[in-house]
Design goal:
This protein is of the alpha/beta class. It contains 7 helices and 7 strands. The longest helix is centred in the middle third of the chain and has 21 residues.
């Protein structure tokens, strides 16, 4: 089998990102690519302000975002350009997780402002063995809400679909910060 590119992470991390307004989304893509994200899936959630009139508009956005991912990957010396998917609905995103990941070996994490008990640190500690070199976890999926956050309905559906709801600490982070904080924490924890 081909040797893994040294700059590429061993655990595949996918970011399901509630679409943020304007330049924020560009920034989210660029920074997460620098941190070694493997796939970014823009998600239209209940609180997403951005709407696309048609599939063509969504595809145009995706082409632009993919170009940003390419530039970022090149700039930080990555061997592989992460895929930016065409924007999808929350329901489609939940289906996409099952299609693109072996769920037995996937850890799904959802930073959620109404979660007070379980921290990201708790979940990573609890799964330390599974996240090690010999561990069973091969994929991590992160779901981040847009500016308006994750709706109660979406949070409940995500948990039913295997997501672990976590708090990122005492302060509520903006959508563009939450993904970066989560990805950086995971990379630190798994030494990747």
């Amino acid at each position: 089998s081909a040797a893994r590119c040294v700059s590429e992470p061993r655990i595949v991390v996918s970011l399901y990102q509630g679409i943020a307004k304007g330049e924020k989304m560009d920034w989210i893509i660029q920074k997460n690519v620098e941190l070694g994200i493997n796939r970014i899936i823009p998600v239209l959630t209940e609180h997403t302000v951005v709407r696309y009139d048609n599939k063509k508009d969504a595809q145009k956005k995706q082409v632009r975002w993919q170009r940003i991912a390419e530039e970022a990957a090149k700039q930080c010396g990555r061997g592989v350009v992460p895929e930016v998917a065409i924007p999808m609905t929350f329901k489609e995103a939940m289906g996409d997780i099952a299609v693109n990941n072996d769920l037995q070996n996937t850890l799904c994490i959802m930073p959620y402002e109404n979660e007070t008990d379980i921290s990201l640190k708790n979940i990573l500690k609890e799964n330390a063995e599974n996240l090690s070199e010999e561990g069973s976890v091969k994929n991590i999926c992160i779901f981040i809400g847009p500016e308006g956050g994750i709706s109660t309905n979406e949070a409940e559906t995500a948990v039913k679909n295997g997501f672990r709801s976590v708090t990122l600490g005492k302060r509520i982070l903006r959508t563009e910060t939450a993904g970066i904080a989560t990805v950086a924490s995971i990379r630190y924890e798994i030494g990747d």
